[in-house]
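assembly run, all chains below
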Amino acid sequence: MSEAIARRVEESFARQGLMVHLGAVLHEIRQGLVAIRMPFRPELSQQHGYFHAGATSAIADTAGGYAGFTVFPENSSVLTVEFKLNLLNPAQGDFLEAVGRVVKSGRTLTICQLEVFAHRPDERVPVAIGQQTLMCMAGRPDVPSG
Amino acid sequence: MSEAIARRVEESFARQGLMVHLGAVLHEIRQGLVAIRMPFRPELSQQHGYFHAGATSAIADTAGGYAGFTVFPENSSVLTVEFKLNLLNPAQGDFLEAVGRVVKSGRTLTICQLEVFAHRPDERVPVAIGQQTLMCMAGRPDVPSG
Amino acid sequence: MSEAIARRVEESFARQGLMVHLGAVLHEIRQGLVAIRMPFRPELSQQHGYFHAGATSAIADTAGGYAGFTVFPENSSVLTVEFKLNLLNPAQGDFLEAVGRVVKSGRTLTICQLEVFAHRPDERVPVAIGQQTLMCMAGRPDVPSG
Amino acid sequence: MSEAIARRVEESFARQGLMVHLGAVLHEIRQGLVAIRMPFRPELSQQHGYFHAGATSAIADTAGGYAGFTVFPENSSVLTVEFKLNLLNPAQGDFLEAVGRVVKSGRTLTICQLEVFAHRPDERVPVAIGQQTLMCMAGRPDVPSG
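ok done. output:
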């Protein structure tokens, strides 16, 4: 994968106000794969003190979206069409890691698998798995609007 | 629906650090229906300046979860088993409103439909629809852990 | 909706070997809505003697697909991108009715809601709800291949 | 995995009228994994002559259901709560093979990943991936009703 693609992902990610607000950071960018990490903070919790499923799904969706973005042509942008998430275990740990992986990439649509793990001092627990459909908006560069 | 149930929902929602962090507020609580509103802020945006799908899904999941909670027996808590969201239109507007609605309520599992609308000065645009499976954890009151 | 569209749906449906094999018939065709009925036969059962979820999903997917087809331009064909189904109640009855309904129709993608009901002598029970993403293959008329 | 479990799966599968009607056969039974094969017949086709997505989803759902069944306690039966399928490539080939695999097994709910491949003379093409939620009905043996 070219350096240019990694930079496009980083630059786009940095413009996502929500990722900054949640304290999520890009952890890995490869051809067809992006991983995002998000340390625990009380601001990310649900009512029992674990990571909120909304925070889990936010980084899962984003990891998948940028995984797709790495295989898109230049001057295109990415749109999530839909995603589905099964929550497997309580999202409790020092940080979550979401991994998005391209399974099938077409001209218009790209399908990703999503996984989220909770990292604890001595284990890594799968907390969610998902599937996602992305749309490639060709000819619409991923630049700030306006 | 009893006052006690509405209070249980409000009290539990207030403990969700993420909802506070996103600026989301409970807008309506009825038997089998909960609506949540979330005003736009740059902290909720994706790379083009709209609401991030992760923010959209966070309030959709929460609205459905509490809609289920309104029909659960006392001394129980709610767990999201899975949800699926289709994104219909750019989530652009003054605020989003997520509505969760119980479709089928069983002893163990409850199924909800999820809708999210973007409110703009002169229109209300559907931005997402979803389905969600909830689990009722009977005998585990929804109280702070620890 | 024009007569021509209804005829296109009927003619395409008749070419679906599976619908014939399952004994499914088109029950209603409207702009953005198609209903399919399928009488019970032991050949459609799962291990407890109810309609198999695979039979339920086959007519749900087909109803949605043709609902989308009614809003597509001429000389196009329809492709299911993905669908998700929640099974609500045992699929037991004299016949199932699947209703597909267009929720959002775009140039490339169309989103449908799916519902399946079991008709019993004195009631109509919802057995499944679903969401479906369709793709419009413009310029590829829905004609037999080869 | 015990012989008894394999026999339970085979015996239950044989009672599924739909699987017989579609010409589907059990291909593999392991602890937490079941594969089903289904040769092409015109009776399984959609309007362009490929396998119908409904036939694809029927064996995918069944493979996942029995994968779950292999890890359930004796005297229980299995219920599909929901499933979601992404269709990746045209389902064209000599036969389809659906593989269901348990990802997480809990006391009440079990989550499976579903994969369907089209086998062609010289290749094996992924045609669908999915996720499925199953419910274990403890104390309700999987025997014919009535």
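Chain A has one domain: 3-138.

The domain at 3-138 of chain A is CATH 3.10.129.10 (Thiol Ester Dehydrase; Chain A).

not gonna interpret more than that til we talk
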